[in-house]
Fold this sequence. Notes:
By secondary structure, the chain is of the alpha/beta class. The chain has two domains: 16-178, Rossmann fold (3-Layer(aba) Sandwich); 197-346, Rossmann fold (3-Layer(aba) Sandwich), CATH 3.40.50.2000. The protein has 14 helices and eleven strands. It has helices spanning 3-19, 50-54, 57-66, 81-84, 105-114, 131-139, 152-157, 167-178, 197-210, 233-246, 276-284, 295-302, 316-319, 336-346; strands at residues 40-44, 71-77, 91-97, 119-125, 141-146, 217-222, 250-255, 270-271, 288-292, 307-311, 327-330. The strands form two sheets. The chain has a six-stranded parallel β-sheet with strand order 8-7-6-9-10-11, with helices on both faces. A five-stranded parallel β-sheet has the order 3-2-1-4-5, sandwiched between helices. Helix 4 links the parallel strand 2 and strand 3 (91-97). Helix 1 (3-19) crosses helix 6 (131-139) and helix 9 (197-210) packs across helix 11. The termini are far apart. Mean pLDDT is 90; it is low at 3-19.
Amino acid sequence: MSVLKNINNVKRTVLQALTKNVGTSLSANGGKLNKAEIKRVLIVRPNHRLGNQLLITPIVEDVTNFFPDAKIDLFVKGNVAPIIFQNYKNIDHILRLPKQHFKQLLQYIKGWLSIRKEYYDIVINVVPNSSSGRLLTKFARGKYKFYGDDVEELQQKYSDYQHIAKNPVYNFRYCLSKLGVSCDYNEIPSLNIKLSSSEIATGKELLDKLVTDKNKKTISIYTYATGAKCYDETWWLEFHKRLKSEYPNHNILEILPVENVSQILFKEPSLYSKDIREMAAVIANTEVFISADGGVMHLASAAQTPVIGLFSVTSIGRYEPYNGKSKGLDTNNLTNDEIISEINKNILA
């Protein structure tokens, strides 16, 4: 681990310890909440990673379902949120911190100050152990503030409570129930980038140009991941060989990372794109998407495609794709044949 990463880890641990008691949900004013009066909601998730911003689409969807006439502002980091949420009609403003705040300190300070421009009926912190998220929620002007702290009652009731996309939704509904709003705990919304019909049609046209036979269904794969999550060439080449033998009547399309590398040595047709909506639109036209845990796995899930997520180091319970027939697999305990069996059982049956 680099010196910089060690410093960042220490800084994160210290900040989390200092801010863990900042704010208490519902503490701002108390009383009963009148749904008709909720006009502005702020959702706080100051993180720049693609996956982490896609993982807040369910809470955005749930807030919209409860308050369809409310305008929603997002407080995030980096430049990807406007692309993800461009088709979300209730999103009003996207307040952003720069990705590298030490290099853009003035912009970073302006970003913090921007949160004070509006008064919100509800402020929601998505991740309770985010020190900046808690401080921003405290700093924002709002009537009701939900800090997202874990609720033991919900932990015992819901086996999927710790999932990073579902947890904020459960907590949000719990806070509403404490304010007198009826919550029937319907199914949690899935990740959704809300591709338009024209985007999906364009994705189909591009897919047809890339694959060997446009009349065959297509399996899409993504062989890259960051750090220890990345499976090596040996693993992917063996799995690719097994995939080819099991599905001779399918195309296989590799989605390439921005680094333009391939763990299967470019043995299949591939898509290289820096446009995440274009990537999602192509994936949306494939029958199943297979990859290690990461941002592009969540992008495929948000494209509403069945996903097989491969997990070796990160928590399935926290990050598993859950839309439709999607499934997370612990590859530490599965052979390639067993992975294929799970694909057949869950998606390609």
